[in-house]
Design brief:
This protein has about 325 residues and is an alpha/beta fold. It folds into 2 domains: about 180 residues, 3-Layer(aba) Sandwich (Rossmann fold); about 140 residues, N-(1-d-carboxylethyl)-l-norvaline Dehydrogenase, domain 2, CATH 1.10.1040. Helices cover about 50% and strands about 10% of the residues. It contains 15 helices and 8 strands. The protein has an 8-stranded mixed sheet with strand order 3-2-1-4-5-6-7-8, with helices on both faces. Strand 2, helix 2 and strand 3 form a beta-alpha-beta unit. Helix 8 packs antiparallel against helix 9, helix 8 packs across helix 13 and helix 14 packs antiparallel against helix 15. The radius of gyration is 19 Å and the shape is globular. The protein starts with a strand and ends in a 10-residue tail after the last helix.
Length: about 325
């Protein structure tokens, strides 16, 4: 049995808590909202996220980070990427330095252009070694993980020892964890698939057809590889769970928040109208801005990302974006 602290009581944090408790671990959760803490401790339900799932009595929620982190063997940061720096900075003073630190976020931070694990390495420097930091990622919608439905993901880290420890801690009969040592490739796949899911949602919402969606997913994978190649990732990673696997599930599932955003944009709604009615974060919105910034800075052509960026932030009509993509200069298909 391990003591696992989950920082963030959103949908995925709640699902991971349920998974860890089912695997025999003692689980502490941190939540900003006092009503969430009370709901978990008194009623064993999270009133804000996955509220239809009965939570284990082994899960205790806390409003103070210090209490949630006490005596932890593993700390899982389940906050959105844009909140990772703020929350991990606050958590830093309560860490002993012996914990294994895990990110389950999927995004790229604006301006710094860091992945979630890179943010943690940066913020926790001097307290936690880089070799103690890892990532759990892959095609894993919280709604299904929380119900303990069959799911397969990847554990990756800056050291093989930590990747194995993550695998051993989270592996269950219904949650299969593979090892992959390509941490940058795994995080790039997890971030870019959210951008592609927005694009896939637009295709569905605007009724552009199955051919367009197949092309979008396939060429989206190509953009993952292009960015990953520039950053030194293995191309094989993008054929696996954190690339193609996560891309498929996020572009096609009704559970996908990013696809939901795109679908409603395709139906004619504005981004503000859509996000104002959501209580969960669609990471792809902020990631589209970050990755567009990265591509401009590094001179890497990423046409789908650019199209999503223009639709989200430059008020481009989705049909004009499709036309722009379709009328680009003729190219070879296989060309990194």
């Amino acid at each position: 049995m391990k003591r696992v602290s989950i920082i963030g009581a959103g949908s995925f944090g709640t699902a991971i808590a349920m998974l860890c408790a089912s695997n025999g671990h003692q689980v502490s959760m941190w939540a900003r909202e006092s009503e969430v803490v009370d709901g978990i401790n008194k009623n064993h339900y999270n009133p804000a996220y996955l509220s239809d799932i009965k939570l284990s009595h082994k899960i205790a929620a806390h409003h103070k980070l210090e209490d949630a982190l006490k005596d932890a063997d593993m700390v899982v940061f389940a906050t959105p990427t844009h909140a990772m720096r703020e929350v991990s900075t606050k958590a830093r003073e309560f860490l002993s330095g012996n914990e294994i630190i895990i990110s389950v976020a999927k995004g790229i931070e604006q301006d710094s252009l860091m992945t979630p694990s890179q943010i943690l390495v940066n913020v926790l420097d001097g307290v936690v070694l880089e070799d103690q930091i890892g990532v759990l990622t892959g095609p894993s919608h919280a709604e299904e993980v929380g119900l303990l439905k069959a799911t397969t993901v990847v554990a990756t880290a800056y050291s093989k020892r930590v990747a194995r420890a993550i695998q051993q801690t989270f592996m269950t009969t219904m949650f299969r964890v593979y090892l992959n040592q390509d941490i940058i490739g795994a995080e790039i796949g997890g971030a870019l698939k959210n951008i592609m899911a927005i694009a896939a949602g637009i295709v569905d919402g605007a009724e552009l057809g199955d051919n367009a969606k197949a092309a979008l997913i396939t060429r989206g994978l190509h953009e993952m590889k292009r960015m990953g190649s520039t950053l030194g990732a293995s191309q094989d990673t993008f054929s696996g769970l954190t690339g193609m696997g996560d891309l498929i599930v996020t572009c096609t599932s009704t559970h996908s928040r990013n696809r939901y955003v795109g679908y409603n944009i395709g139906k004619g709604k504005t981004l503000e109208e859509i996000t104002s009615g959501m209580n969960m974060v669609a990471e792809g919105v902020k990631t589209a801005r970050s990755v567009h910034q990265w591509s401009q800075k590094n001179g890497v052509e990423m046409p789908i990302t650019e199209a999503v960026y223009k639709v989200l932030f430059k008020n481009m009509d989705p049909k004009d974006a499709v036309n722009e993509l379709m009328t680009r200069n003729a190219k070879d298909e296989i060309m990194i």
